[in-house]
Amino acid sequence: KINFFAIKMEVWKIGSSEPAPKFHIISKPNNWTKSVKQSVQTSALTDTKLLQLKFWDDFKQYAQDKNFNLRLRKTNPQHWYDLSFGRTDCHIGLTINSQKKRTCL
């Protein structure tokens, strides 16, 4: 997977100061900010929390690959994950039991 940024650079000079670069991000990889923030947060996670996060990341990727008609939310290192499917009055809640290696709907 290749990620890249598109950056526009300007040279600014204020008064008699030396010219300095000013960078503007034109395009960045999808979820780049979230993944950087998440990588910082995962450094302090327990093995169970890391396993939960990997499970939900894999589940989300599988659902995206299969084009399921679901609104997939950000994954978190927790034992539950909520799914939306276009209605405001209900949702689907998924849970995992890491100790018994079970999932529930």
Structure summary:
The protein is an alpha+beta fold. Helices cover 29% and strands 27% of the residues.
Largest sheet: 3 strands, antiparallel
Tell how many strands the DSSP assignment holds. Answer: 5
**How many helices in DSSP terms?**
2
> Pairing-aware structural class of the strands and helices?
alpha+beta
Strand content: 25-35%
- Tell me, briefly, the overall form: elongated
The strand line-up of the biggest sheet is 3-4-5
Order of helices and strands: EEHHEEE
Number of structural units classed as domains: 1
Helix content: 25-40%
In the predicted model, the low-confidence regions spanning at least 5 consecutive residues are none
Nearest-integer average pLDDT: 82
Distance between the termini: 32 Å
Radius of gyration, whole Å = 20 Å
Supply the key terms.
three-stranded antiparallel beta sheet, elongated, 105 residues, 2 helices, alpha+beta
Overview of this protein structure:
By secondary structure, this protein is an alpha+beta fold. The chain has one domain. It contains 2 helices and 5 strands. It has a 3-stranded antiparallel beta sheet with strand order 3-4-5, with no helix packed on it. Strands 1-2 form a two-stranded antiparallel sheet. A hairpin with a 4-residue loop joins strand 4 (92-97) and strand 5. 3% of the residues are buried.
